[in-house]
Write a structure and sequence with these properties.
It is a single chain. The chain has 5 helices and no strands. Helix 1 runs antiparallel to helix 2 and helix 3 crosses helix 4. The model has no long low-confidence stretch (mean pLDDT 90).
Length: 91
């Protein structure tokens, strides 16, 4: 187990509130990180994606950094703008 996982496990044991909210927050973080990686792999800037989506760079930054409650249609449009598609798995 690496240091990060040890720290997370320790925090979950100490704080029930942290444990209860960790997974949801982590999933939201991963969505934004995946979107940013897809954009960078496509060789696009936030400005270029914003232009394709007819929005502002600040909106793209917000999507990549705070992906909570993002609409599925927004995810689909973002993925299309960077040459990708969305796959959804229910587990």
């Amino acid at each position: 187990m690496d240091d990060l996982n040890k720290y997370i496990a320790k925090r979950k044991k100490k704080s029930p509130a942290f444990a209860a909210n960790f997974e949801k927050g982590y999933e939201e973080f991963k969505i934004g990180a995946l979107l940013k990686m897809a954009r960078e792999e496509a060789g696009l800037t936030q400005e270029q994606v914003a232009e394709k989506l007819r929005t502002k760079k600040s909106a793209i930054s917000r999507i990549e950094n705070h992906a909570e409650d993002i609409r599925l249609s927004t995810l689909e449009r973002f993925a299309e703008a960077v040459g990708r598609r969305i796959e959804l798995n229910i587990v």
